[in-house]
Write a structure and sequence with these properties.
About 25% of the residues lie in helices and about 25% in strands. The protein has one domain. The radius of gyration is 14 Å and the shape is globular. The chain contains four helices and seven strands, in the order ββαββββααβα. α1 packs antiparallel against α2 (about 90-100). It has a seven-stranded antiparallel sheet, with helices on one face. By secondary structure, the protein is of the alpha+beta class.
Amino acid sequence: MTQAWFKLCDLAGRDIDNPSQKQREQALAAVYAPASDGLGSVVFTFGYDDGLMYEIEVMSGGAVKFEEWSDADYELELAEPRAMVNVSLADAQQLWEWLAQRQVSKIRKAPWVTLDRNKEKDWIMLPTRQK
């Protein structure tokens, strides 16, 4: 049987398995806080032990990136990464809530811009974390 899992990588880089709603809210609040140095990000990931994985990264300044992968090893990208800029805290919370509810179809319908991994200009607006 396939088991679903959730993981949160907080602003300090700590991984939290199966984070509570309060932990997710605290992580987002930290990245949106004026005291943040403007360079951080928090990542909420949902996946299955033997299959698909979805990741929403929220960066200081309100940039958000959504990625879909065939597995937790980042081996096969299922779609080009998508992004939004100037996302409010409330909208970021909604995206993460949909992910927590496994509502990937709702996330896909958000007003994303597709990013081309081969075009550097697409990535200038988004800091990326190392996988």
